[in-house]
Amino acid sequence: MSDDQPEASEFYTFAQAAAELGLAYDTVKDAVRRGTIPVLTYGPRMHLITRTALDDYRRDHLRKGKPPTKQAEWARAYRERKESRTGGDTAKAWKRPSVGRLTVVLS
Q1: Domains in the chain: how many in total?
Q2: Which of 18, 31, 81, 84 has the CA that lies 20 to 30 A from 90?
Q3: Helix 25-34 vs helix 14-21: angle between axes, to the nearest 10 degrees?
Q4: More confident site: 60 or 18
């Protein structure tokens, strides 16, 4: 690999970037739409964010080196708990658990 190309570990999906920054997925997506976070686009559906873009966003738009807020800490802990329950499959976390059928007898 040449020196001017970043390593594969320096690329993040929107979900990975959100976890790295301690933000919601939609917040990262909105920042990309606004142009606040630049992305590399490969085809119509593959968008990757570089490590440098994350560092720049963190420096310019987040709490500028201050510790995360309690809300950000809560959100990160919530995501970690959800991922540990679903084995990393976040789609499973949003499925409603099946409930037995309730039968009502009218006399």
Answers
A1: 1
A2: 31
A3: 110
A4: 18
